[in-house]
Design brief:
The radius of gyration is 14 Å and the shape is globular. It has four helices and seven strands; from the N terminus they run ββββααβαββα. By secondary structure, the chain is an alpha+beta fold. The chain has one domain.
């Protein structure tokens, strides 16, 4: 498999609002966020490289909710956890208990409540993301 599921660990350095496409304007405080997505199509995990390019301003295209958040100057990609399996919703559901969910974010094509959660502590969030990937594969 050339792709699978990924979770971006993001840092927001300041409070503020972000217009998230059709989701509208959302207030997103500073802190650590985990966004889970899939990279199952052509190019596989090169989607993560695309996300990094949006976060650094090298790519200004906005297709998905995450593009709008990454395009905000106070948001950066800190870490990425990947799994070569189609477990996107399983990981996202496991992360809902890890922090505050942003309702409707990144889940317009599934039944999940959210694919983006916020937490204060970076190290705890990364550990929780890694466990969520492991447990989703085991399920």
């Amino acid at each position: 498999m050339d792709g699978g599921t990924y979770t971006l660990v993001l840092e927001r350095t300041s409070d503020g609002t972000v217009e998230i496409g059709a989701l509208g304007v959302r207030s997103l405080p500073a802190g650590w966020y985990a966004y889970t997505g899939s990279a199952l199509g052509p190019g596989g995990f090169s989607r993560v490289d695309r996300h990094r390019a949006v976060a650094t301003g090298e790519n200004t295209a906005r297709h998905w909710h995450i593009d709008y958040l990454l395009g905000d100057p106070s948001t950066s990609v800190d870490a990425v956890v990947t799994t070569e399996a189609d477990v996107e919703c399983g990981v996202a559901e496991r992360l809902l208990d890890a922090g505050d969910a942003v309702p409707g974010f990144g889940c317009s094509d599934c039944r999940c409540r959210s694919h983006l959660v916020r937490r204060e502590d970076r190290d705890a969030l990364v550990a929780t993301v890694e466990r969520a990937h492991e447990r989703a594969v085991e399920a």
